[in-house]
């Protein structure tokens, strides 16, 4: 299992990436991270919801209550704003640059 610290600084970017595909809720994002990482990254729900709160305050996302036709608990859904889309583009571009630098620093010139 890889430490969730690997995502530190990019949790919001990962969440925004998922929201670029459409509105969703916290559990679905946690599940997506676990699934895409092959179960190697397990991010705590609290981390997700703290990030949601930060992003709402920064107006990167908006929240709304979904309707549940099955009689279960209502879910709080999140949608990305235009500001969030711009932020995502900036952070993903930044990540590409950082990734190249880290590859050189950690792997060296072996990786081309």
Describe this structure in words.
By secondary structure, the protein is mostly helical. It has one domain (4-110): Winged helix-like DNA-binding domain superfamily/Winged helix DNA-binding domain (Arc Repressor Mutant, subunit A), CATH 1.10.10. It is built from 4 helices and 2 strands. The protein has helices at 11-20, 26-36, 45-57, 82-106; strands spanning 61-65, 76-80. It has a two-stranded antiparallel ribbon. The chain is globular and about 55 Å long. The model has no long low-confidence stretch (mean pLDDT 90).
Features:
4 helices; Arc Repressor Mutant, subunit A; two-stranded antiparallel ribbon; globular; mainly alpha; single chain
Brief overview, please?
The chain is mainly α and 112 residues long.
